[in-house]
Structures are given as structure tokens and as C-alpha cells.
Amino acid sequence: MRIVVCGTGFVGSALVREFTVRGHEVTAVSRRLKTGIPEGVTQSVGSVHDPAFLEEVAAGADVLVSALPAIADGGGLDTGVAALLRRAGETGARLGVVGGSAVLPLFEGGPRQVDTPGFPAWLLPRVEVHARTLGVLDAAPEGIDWFCLVPAADFGPHRPGVRTGSYRTSATAQVTDEEGHSVLGVEDYAIAFADEIDTPRIRRAWLAVGY
């Protein structure tokens, strides 16, 4: 399977490694050449906001993956995902998106994390972009197959975690443990993402992942 990963930061790099280990043909797209990319991966420098570049790099792809930052020079996650959706609609590729947890309910039927008291104000612009991105996905033409895999609330470079090979999912709220903590390591997130590509379980929906 040919997979094009757009964004090679903390999450995107982990996805590239996992897809490569599984034997997929991987192209890693970023604004500049990156070190530490696995052997055999094709690196392509450019922006998803450049239609000509995106048309070229996505040609023949079975899956397009957005691991783009929420906010970036030249265009944010919502506009990047919109561009990838247009390309997916033209080629028939499936689109997978790395989501953000704060737009999900803390528990089934409960408030979104962003709507709870004490949520950090400095994160609001990023959360708003993730919320708009879900709206862009929901409004995509019915024929486009997409999924949005949302990592746990406590997820990022500050807590890279260790590879366990296990995870749980939820289609209604964040995934939390018995003490109410929502945590996930990046390698196990990559495993969950690759599992969804290899054996699709959802279509045109988000899915939360955690321990």
C-alpha cells in the first residue's frame, strides 16, 4: 500500500516508522528535509497548500495522512485537511487525520474537555482549529472515505511513553483509565493508526485512542 504522510513532527515521524516497519511504501512530506527518516522512505519537500505539489506527491497514493500542526505559517490544519480531501476526492484515496482530544467529551454524554473549568486559554486557538477541521471532514462529499484518530488528552513530546502494543478505543468520548486519566504513548498511537489503515473499522468518523 502506498501511504503519503503529510507532516513529520512528533506524531508524523512515528507514523512513518510504523508504516515502514509494516512494509508499506511511504512518502514523507515536510517543508524541509528531516533527519532520522527510515531507510526506504521517500522524502518530498513542499506544502499541502500548494495544489501542484500536492497533485504530484499524492499521485497513486492509497492513503493520505494528515499529521499537520494545528497552526502553521501558510495555512493551518483545517485548510490543509480541506486540500487533502479535495485530492482524495479526485484520486479515490482514503484520508486519515491526526486529531486533537480537547474537542471530545471527557466521558460519554459529558462536556468537551475545552468546555471544562480551568482549561488553558492559550490552547484555545489550537482547539478551535481542530473543531473546524472536524467540521471540514463532516462536510466532505459522501464518496470520500476519511477517519480521524484522536489521541489521549495527555499525549505529546512531554510524555513519549514506551511501546506496549496495546490500546483501547472509543467512539463516544476520550479513553480514560480507572482513575480517569487519559494517556497514550506515541508509538502505540502509531500502532492504532496503522491498524486502522491495514484493517479499516470506521468510515467518516472520529475514534479516540488511549490506554
Mean pLDDT: 97
Overall helicity? 25-40%
Output the CATH class name. Answer: Alpha Beta
Structural class: alpha/beta
H-E string: EHEEHEHEHEEHE
CATH architecture: 3-Layer(aba) Sandwich
How many discrete structural domains? Answer: 1
Low-confidence stretches: none
| Annotation, overall tally of beta strands | 8
| CATH H-level superfamily | NAD(P)-binding Rossmann-like Domain
By DSSP (H or I, 4+ residues per run), the number of helices equals: 5
Beta-strand share of residues: 15-25%
CATH topology: Rossmann fold
Strand order of the largest sheet: 3-2-1-4-5-6-8-7
Largest sheet: 8 strands, mixed
Distance between the termini: 28 Å
Task: Describe the global form.
Answer: globular
Please compute the radius of gyration using only Cα atoms: 16 Å
List its traits.
211 residues; alpha/beta; Rossmann fold; 8-stranded mixed sheet
Protein described:
- The chain is of the alpha/beta class and 211 residues long.
- It has one domain: NAD(P)-binding Rossmann-like Domain (Rossmann fold, 3-Layer(aba) Sandwich).
- Helix content is 29%, strand content 18%.
- The chain has 5 helices and 8 strands.
- The chain has helices spanning 10-21, 51-57, 77-91, 124-138, 186-198, and strands spanning 2-6, 25-30, 42-45, 63-66, 94-98, 146-150, 168-170, 205-210.
- An 8-stranded mixed beta sheet has the order 3-2-1-4-5-6-8-7, with helices on both faces.
- It is globular and about 45 Å long.
- The two termini are 28 Å apart.
Q: What's the topology here?
A:
Elements: E1 2-6, H1 10-21, E2 25-30, E3 42-45, H2 51-57, E4 63-66, H3 77-91, E5 94-98, H4 124-138, E6 146-150, E7 168-170, H5 186-198, E8 205-210
Parallel strand pairs: 1-2, 1-4, 2-3, 4-5, 5-6, 6-8
Antiparallel strand pairs: 7-8
Helix pairs in contact: 1-5, 3-4
